[in-house]
Predict the 3D structure of the following.
Amino acid sequence: MTETAEVVIVGGGAMGASVAWHLRELGLTDVVLLERDSLASGSTSKSAGGIRAQFADELNVRIALRSLDEFERMEGIDLRQDGYLFLLDDEADVARFQAALALQHSLGVPSRELSIEEALEIVPQLDPEGLLAATFCDLDGYATPEAVVQWYARGLDVRQGCEVTGIDVAGGRVAGVETAKGRIATEVVVCCAGAWSSEVAAMAGVEIPVRGEPRWMFFTPEDGGLPERLPLTIDFTSGFYFHREGPGLVFGGREQTLEALAEPAARRLPALLDLPVQSSWWGYYEVSPDHNAIVGEAAEPSRFLYATGFSGHGFQQAPAVGEHVAELVAGREPTLDLSAFALERFARGESRPEAFVI
Ligand SMILES: Cc1cc2nc3c(=O)[nH]c(=O)nc-3n(C[C@H](O)[C@H](O)[C@H](O)COP(=O)(O)OP(=O)(O)OC[C@H]3O[C@@H](n4cnc5c(N)ncnc54)[C@H](O)[C@@H]3O)c2cc1C
């Protein structure tokens, strides 16, 4: 006998778990979440866990505020609102960040520009060479991504070790999913497969332009005397960033090796060079052509929905985007209008770039 479900979600990362949780909040309980490996095993567990309202695109600021409300209600996710500190050494970036501060203020975000002296009061170990300005927001911070997924997943029908191998479409409508453990008949599929979303969407004949870009992170068990309340600090030009992790620090950037990352790291945080690196890991950013999310419902087949392309922000956007997708599934009026993030923008040759990508 073929199993049936009202909704099948593909991918058990932060996004899939959030969609499933929000569907249950809306009263939809016949929902199955399929994960080929284990919950959070994709990009979510590799993430720095950063959460910020300092974005340049108004929609991303709105998503951040809505998401933060939800993060603040979760217990056991180690939410630390120690701020995000952006360090700027390029005049054009300073102008962009000042314009974004005005936007953020108009939406109620308490972000602010700092002088270099003020930035050094927050992180005295920084080398200020070349810096022109900084911005800071103490709403921002980070949390533990796996804990967020577990918070969402309590009591949901989650199938781990269950890979989706095909999506059945009949008469322009979704009809079911094929999995390594059998078929599930369903009329609604939500693709939350992260960096693998283009493969999963292709199973339904939908083309999603997202690609995986490897990003590395490193952990040192020592903190080099950096402050206990350390913001997630980003050297914006190089992309080098760091934050506190228990007694030590985690740090990363765009470089693919520790040797390559050592150069921008040494330039901004020389103390890091003296600290032992205990472990490293990597994961994929699921990158879209304009570094903004790809979220919505396909024109065809009907009832194929997708949420991907977060380009480095998918963990923190999971609450509000998950809510949005659940509302689309349930036919509710969306709390946030995210229609500008729909796939169709690419077919129209449009883009909606987010400038503050790390
Ligand atoms: C080093 C690094 C640092 C980052 N830092 C941050 C940060 O500070 N803040 C932030 O917001 N974001 C950050 N990100 C990005 C963030 O991790 C992702 O945007 C986010 O985790 C995406 O969540 P997701 O649920 O969409 O995808 P994923 O967590 O990748 O989940 C997708 C899941 O789908 C599953 N899957 C794929 N194909 C199939 C299939 N056929 N059948 C069944 N299951 C399938 C995968 O196994 C995977 O578990 C970072 C990423 C990296 C790599």
